[in-house]
Amino acid sequence: MHVLAIDTATTRVSAALGVDGAVVGEVSLVGGRRHAEQLVPAIRYLCAEMRVPLDRLAAVAVDVGPGLFTGLRVGVTTAKVMAQALRIPVVGVPSLDLLAYPLRHSSRLIVAALDARRREVFYASYRTVPGGVQRVSEYAVRAPAELVAELESGTDELLLAGDGIDAYRDDFAELDHVEFAGTDHSFPSVAALVQLATARVEREDFQPPSELLPLYLRTSDAEINWERSAAGA
Fold first, then answer.
1. pLDDT (tens digit per residue) in 102-142
2. Tens of pLDDT along 62-76?
3. What is the distance between the alpha carbons of residues 168 and 60, in angstroms, rounded to a whole number?
4. Which of 149, 183, 194, 208 has the maximum number of C-beta atoms within 10 A of its C-beta?
């Protein structure tokens, strides 16, 4: 079973092809925030190099966020259009789940955090369970100092991952009993997206493309600026 995975939730644009849950080809472009310009050529190149025509795909998987507003919109819209055109299922997986899943062998409480800009992070906490991770908090957004205060109130040994941790390393370094996953785990894993989405397709756990929505958690910068301008007027 061939699955195309798309991740545009962060500054990285990634596309991967999976066969029966294993990645057989991947393209990742970091920086530039040129999601709209880079995603479709990346998909086209990947499929051409792997000699997998689009009509062979069994499903499309996409990172639904939270993350960069424009990037999420590009990725989710592309996945929906492809699924509708090819008449195949679409599976959405949250970005923080894709950060935590590769760390599923840790015994620590996993805290996945992505840089939300405006000196905030998107985050969620996870515990390992047989075969994966289980989220034990809501998806949320807050200032790094507030998250540090929340984590300080607990007694768990912590494993911190994501570019939200990298961006505010000094804040999180104040925590006791903490381990940093490092830059290899700064971004959501497109390999995890392939694996998790394939399992869901096999269980027929997917949704109509029209019902797939990004997980934003907050309004976009453009909306905030418009509201401020309107209030000033």
1. 999 999 999 999 999 999 999 999 999 999 999 999 999 99
2. 999 999 999 999 999
3. 33
4. 194
* Look-up of token digits 């960069």: 68
Q: For residue 21, give the nearest of 198, 200, 193 by alpha carbon.
A: 198
Domain shared by 89 and 194, yes or no: yes
Alpha helices (H) along 115-187: 144-152, 163-167, 169-172
Which run of H or E residues covers position 85? Answer: helix 69-86
Instruction: Check: CB of residue 90 under 8 Å from CB of residue 62.
Output: yes
Amino acid, res. 215: L
Query: Can you tell me which residue has the tokens 């990285």?
Result: 12
Q: Which two tokens stand for residue 101?
A: 């899943």
Residue 69's domain comprises: 2-94+188-224
Task: Check whether residue 86 and residue 121 sit in a common domain.
Answer: no
